[in-house]
Amino acid sequence: MTVRSHYGTGSVILLPKSELPIMSVLLIDGSKNQRTYWADQLKRCTSGYEIVEAPDGQSGLDLYRSRRIDCVLLELSLPDQSGFETLVELVPIASRPRVPVIVLTQITHRGVWELAKQQGAQACFHKQHTTAEELDRAIQRAIARVGQGKYQNIGGSERVNESVPDRPFPQE
């Protein structure tokens, strides 16, 4: 472990790869094949992932409430309820998410993606046009964004910290 500290700027702790903290990612998707595929792909990108799988929205919510989850990957088409219902349960106040949610879906309609982002999703990806590396980077950014507070209260009003750009929609 290395600690770098500079007066007035804070400290940075650099951990060797063997000491990197485990990040728990909840993957909510009705397809066992898709859950297995994305879990394997993410573990190949970063060994620091613990992937917890849920086959539907309700079991995903139950898992989220019962353990520490650092990020949620959510398919919008679920067997038991709309992914939007699950999203609203996970992020009741879109401007103040307690957990980052990334939509990873088969749905390609841009309006659906925009609605998901308005409801608190940090990013939206189409499964067929997304690599594990892109998803890994999005998870890292979303955890950092929610962890540091995307919204800051400055002088009694909220301002958005837009230092982390969103990924553009894929070209059709």
List the helices and strands and how they pair.
Layout: E1 2-6, E2 10-14, E3 23-28, H1 32-45, E4 49-54, H2 57-66, E5 71-74, H3 83-90, E6 101-105, H4 110-118, E7 123-126, H5 132-148, E8 151-154, E9 157-160
Parallel strand pairs: 3-4, 3-5, 5-6, 6-7
Antiparallel strand pairs: 1-2, 8-9
Count of discrete domains: 1
CATH architect. name: 3-Layer(aba) Sandwich
Question: Order of SSEs, N→C?
Answer: EEEHEHEHEHEHEE
- Number of E-type strands: 9
Q: Calculate Rg over CA atoms.
A: 17 Å
Distance between the first and last residues' Cα: 45 Å
The CATH homologous superfamily is called: Response regulator
Q: Helix content range of the residues, please? A: 25-40%
Beta content = 25-35%
Biggest sheet layout? 5 strands, parallel
* Strand arrangement, major sheet: 4-3-5-6-7
Low-confidence segments: 150-172
CATH fold category name: Rossmann fold
Count helical runs. Answer: 5
What integer is the average pLDDT? 82
Describe the protein's architecture and organization.
With 172 residues, the chain is an alpha/beta fold. The chain has a single domain, classed as Response regulator (Rossmann fold, 3-Layer(aba) Sandwich), CATH 3.40.50. It is 34% helix and 25% strand. The protein contains five helices and nine strands; from the N terminus they run E-E-E-H-E-H-E-H-E-H-E-H-E-E. Strands 4-3-5-6-7 form a five-stranded parallel β-sheet, sandwiched between helices. Helix 1 crosses helix 5. The chain is globular. The C terminus is likely disordered.
